[in-house]
Amino acid sequence: MHEFLTFASDADILAMWGVAFLGLAAFTLIMDRRRNRRARIDRIGWMPWTGLFLTFAVIGGGLLAVAIPSILRA
């Protein structure tokens, strides 16, 4: 893995960060759905899962949008 990262282009590294942020967005989406299906609605918690999902999804999508054209050209 280290050898791949040594020779990876900037677009490859941006794409990996984009996928990581989209993975975090998927995790927050799962946690938000879990919170919404809770049996006791008064124990909802304090984490802003929806806001985190939107933040991570926008960052990940933006990074992939920047990286994909360069990756497809190579």
Keywords:
single chain; 74 residues; mainly alpha; 0% strand; elongated
Q: Which bin fits the share of residues in helices?
A: over 70%
Secondary structure tally, helices: 3
Please tell me what the overall shape is.
Answer: elongated
**Rg result:** 17 Å
What quaternary form is this?
A: single chain
The description of the largest β-sheet is:
none
Summarize the structure.
The protein is mainly alpha-helical and 74 residues long. 78% of the residues lie in helices and 0% in strands.
Write up this protein.
- The protein is mainly α.
- The protein has one domain.
- The protein is 78% helix and 0% strand.
- The protein is built from three helices and no strands.
- It has helices spanning 2-7, 10-36, 49-73.
- Helix 2 (10-36) packs antiparallel against helix 3 (49-73).
- It is elongated, with a radius of gyration of 17 Å.
- The chain starts with a helix and ends with a helix.
- The relative contact order is 0.22.
- The model has no long low-confidence stretch (mean pLDDT 87).
Topology:
Layout: H1 2-7, H2 10-36, H3 49-73
Helix pairs in contact: 2-3
